[in-house]
Amino acid sequence: MQSxxxxxxxxxxxxxxxxxxxxxxxxxxxxxxxxxPALADREAVLDAxxxxxxxAWRSFEHPxxxxxxxxxxxxxxxxxxxxxxxxxxxxxxxxxxxxxxESVSPSRPLYLGYVGSTGLEVGVLAEALAATYDVNLxxxxxxxxxxxxxxxxxxxxxxxYPCAEGAFTSGGMISNLTGLLTARERAxxxxxxxxxxxxxxxxxxxxESHHSVIRAAEAAGIGSDFVRRLALDARRRLRPTDLEAAIxxxxxxxxxxxxxVANGGTTLTGAVDPLAEIAEVCERRGVWLHVDxxxxxxAAATGIAGPLFAGLERADSAILDAHKWLGLQKSxxxxxxxxxxxxxxxxxxxxxxxxxxxxxxxxERTLEYSRPLRSLKLWLAFRxxxxxxxxxxxxxxxxxxxxxxxxxxxxxxFELLCxxxxxxxxxxxxxxxxxxxxQHNTELAAAAQEDGRIYLASALVDGRACLRVCxxxxxxxxxxxxxxxxxxxxxxxxxxxx
Length: 498
Ligand SMILES: Cc1ncc(COP(=O)(O)O)c(C=O)c1O
Prior knowledge:
Order of helices and strands: HHHHHHEHHEHEHEHEEEHHHEEHEEH
CATH topology of the largest domain: Aspartate Aminotransferase, domain 2
Helix content: 40-55%
Number of domains: 2
Bound molecules: pyridoxal-5'-phosphate
Strand content: 5-15%
Number of strands: 11
């Protein structure tokens, strides 16, 4: 036992071993009934897992020539009945890795669809560690509480937001809902207990805000009919004058403005609403300003895109998904709030089974109860790579979008549908012989997914079907952009001539 401990400690990082018991490494039998769920040979399974992970990481380093189809053996595995008896853990792990290898992974450098990620390697390590300890942040968890707090502060510092409190959530949807519930309690005190009690409230956003804002308004009892989806300006942004008029009309009609949800990067085109002018309106009218930066807010940390976010510091709340442009694994989103106590006003409560103690339980500031230590991924990533690397990576993806837009603009076979603000580009293929361009571009996106060299999806801009590419993956290179355009031309010409 002693020699095993010292050989494995030589592979450990400097200066730390887990506290086991008063004797150091225990020589007693493991604590648990016979057959309790532990792996028979942990080190062998960990070795097998680390090989599988290393193979996957290697496969992410280069684009694949095609995506593998789901093979017959995998289909067979996935039709197996519930196993009654143990299977070999190493074989089971290998099956799991094979299934994932035959799935769509946003970690691949030519995954350009929706809003992807990078799947930073350090995030995998953090996930494994966090799952090992399985800390529950519903209640106080000692050092993990401080780590979560520090990660919130680091993100706020990174994007330049004067955050007083914040929390990690499962995604942009829940972060937006958390923001609206907080704003609702501020606008209609007591609403969380009494309901609307005959009162009406409204939320304001642009036509192109993410659907999670509508869903959050529905879940918060505000109602989607009370989401005022306002027309866009020429840069696809909310117009502050229209916003003020809509708020004034509601106030005159006895509808209470609950929140303005400004975009810190729309999903469709990456548009950033004019935050400073919107903040003026909100301050004048006494309305909560929430910034949905699930996708775009990390760009506020960069020299290139930072100025677009002027006024962010005046927002009452802002959200950001670290599982998008900060390159981490799902799920890792944050809500940041400017004023201390606002979250507790919306969620604070005491239960007979979760008592208020000297330190408040996190559940008094969050919508979720049981919460994993999502922040560990971000904390470890900032420490491992440094904020400067994130800034550089994000700037490089902004450059990729400019490169693609330039390539499209310079090519008579393609059309740019709108100038990219951040890292999203919407464009169309225009082969001469095709009359129905909507159908052609829809088919082209589907053909690209089928072909497997690049991954993107079609989208609709002003009712016109187009190809939409979003660069958030730190593995994507400049030559990948040129390759993507060449591949789309090849596939597009093939469809057009079929
Ligand atoms: C702007 C915006 N807000 C909210 C969301 C929802 O985020 P999630 O999918 O993490 O719930 C998205 C997702 O793409 C988004 O782009």
